[in-house]
Write a structure and sequence with these properties.
- The protein has two domains: 202 residues, UDP-n-acetylglucosamine1-carboxyvinyl-transferase, Chain (Alpha-beta prism), CATH 3.65.10; 206 residues, Alpha-beta prism (UDP-n-acetylglucosamine1-carboxyvinyl-transferase, Chain), CATH 3.65.10.
- The protein contains 14 helices and 23 strands.
- α1 packs parallel to α7 and α4 runs parallel beside α6.
- It is elongated and about 65 Å long.
- It binds uridine-diphosphate-N-acetylglucosamine (UD1).
- Uridine-diphosphate-N-acetylglucosamine binds next to α1, α5 and α6.
- Its main location: cytoplasm.
- It catalyses: phosphoenolpyruvate + UDP-N-acetyl-alpha-D-glucosamine = UDP-N-acetyl-3-O-(1-carboxyvinyl)-alpha-D-glucosamine + phosphate.
Length: 417
């Protein structure tokens, strides 16, 4: 149970590099078992969730090597189709193994997945979509048993463009007989990354990045080597840290097209942003201004995963901002901690009213989930005095040695026990 100790007030200055996206590498690792051979993934982040996924793959019989930034999965001996409860509970993304195992072994047995406590996170859309492919699914005593001996492509209309459901259906449909069409699919960049990875091993998928994805079933896949896209949420977190500290940061290996929803809001706060092919440079020399409003929406709307970090920035902005969370039903818990630091925030259901204060004050706070925890670190960097952020393990799920990265650009932050 580590903690971060932050002495606020230092201006962040310099360059930070972003690694591969957590939300890409996790479904891609699950996808690697579809191929009865070897997959090499470049640019992988060293995160707690990635190690948890590797542990599950090894349990299923894969041989996994993590060397430098490369993960090599040898999936020739994946025979097991059952994931024990303790491994399923380590993270929400374990659910991707459902589609992947059905594709590989025609069956899967697992319990409901764990994950961040940011609201009710059902998997009904995953199950509904998989059933449309002819997969038999039985749910009993917290376990889900799937059998897909006669999988057939079909048309699937998602009631909501769920990221996970879109990816799980894609995984299951790769080797189904015939054509699968997913309508009202999620359009997140990580979905396009999964499509590109699967196609690199011989799948026939098109349309990812739009709301209609077409998967033509194939019989066999082959070995592949693939580079994961950069993590837009980590990049966005660094950019928010630059704004709150009135700093100047160049975030390298960040794709501006993936971050436009955040960049347009940060421009409204008054900071200057320059972009190149693979970098974003931000400079802020005065107090940020409040923005019109922030509403989280499926991509390309404002990402829910950057909502808490943006609220930290807005809590010291000049003026009032209304932030509406439409994706998850309990994603404002971290605001209670920001209030301990002097923020003026009122939350009513899915809406938060943030009246910017001149400055935040250091305090002892608790990270209750991954992105809420990142928001508290950002707040601590901009606050006067010392902030202790407890339960660092939530933050480690999505940020690789965040204290080292922020320290390298001038942040006074250390990990303590
Ligand atoms: C993914 C991301 C997560 C991000 C989220 C929204 C990964 C590993 N995680 O999570 O970081 O915050 O997208 O951008 O990629 N829902 C249902 N039934 C379902 C599935 C989802 O009701 O079967 C609801 C969820 O409760 C939630 C909303 O749909 O309210 C969005 O969930 P979804 O897009 O599925 O998010 P995840 O894939 O879990």
């Amino acid at each position: 149970m580590g903690k971060f100790k932050i002495n606020g007030g230092n201006r962040l200055y310099g360059e930070l590099k972003v690694n591969g996206a957590k939300n890409s590498v996790l479904p891609i690792l699950a996808a690697s078992i579809l191929n009865e051979g070897i997959s090499v993934m470049h640019g992988c982040p060293k995160l707690k969730d990635v190690y948890s996924m590797i542990e599950i793959l090894e349990h299923l019989g894969a041989n996994v090597t993590f060397k430098g930034r490369d993960i090599i999965v040898d999936a020739r001996n994946v025979k097991d189709s059952e994931i024990p409860d303790n491994l399923m509970r380590t993270m929400r993304s374990s659910i991707f193994l459902m589609g992947a195992l059905i594709s590989r072994n025609k069956k899967a047995l697992m319990s409901f997945p764990g994950g961040c406590d940011i609201g009710h996170r059902p998997i009904d859309l995953h199950l509904k979509g998989l059933r449309r492919l002819g997969i038999k699914i039985e749910e009993s005593y917290g376990y889900i048993k799937c059998e897909g001996w006669k999988m057939k492509g079909n048309e699937i209309h998602l009631d909501f463009p769920s990221v996970g459901a879109t990816e799980n259906i894609m995984l299951a449909a790769v080797k189904a007989e015939g054509v699968t069409i997913i309508r009202n699919a999620a359009k997140e960049p990580e979905i396009e990354d999964l499509q590109n990875f699967l196609n690199s091993m011989g799948a026939k998928i098109s349309g990812a990045g739009t709301n209609t994805i077409i998967i033509e079933g194939v019989k066999r896949l082959h070995d592949t080597e693939y580079t994961i896209i950069p993590d837009r949420i980590v990049a966005g977190t660094y950019l928010c840290a630059a704004v709150i500290t009135k700093g100047e940061l160049t975030v390298v290996n960040a794709l501006k097209e993936h971050l436009e929803p955040l960049l347009s809001k940060l421009r409204e706060t008054g900071c200057s942003i320059q972009t190149g092919n693979d970098y974003i440079k931000i400079r802020c020399d005065k107090r940020p201004k409040a923005v019109d409003m922030v509403i989280t929406l499926p991509y390309p709307g404002f990402p829910t995963d950057l909502q808490p970090q943006m609220v930290s920035v807005l809590s010291v902005a000049d003026g009032t901002t209304i932030v509406t969370e439409t994706i998850f039903d309990n994603r404002f818990k971290y605001t209670e901690e920001l209030i301990r630091m002097g923020a003026d925030i009122k939350v009513e259901g899915r809406v938060a009213v943030i009246r910017g204060v001149e400055k935040l004050m250091g305090a002892k706070v608790v990270a209750r989930d991954l992105r809420g925890g990142a928001a508290l670190i950002i707040a601590g960097l901009g606050a006067e005095g010392t902030t202790i952020v407890e339960e660092a393990e939530h933050i480690d799920r999505g940020y690789e040695s965040i204290e080292k990265a922020l320290k390298s650009v001038g942040g006074d932050i250390v990990r303590i026990m």
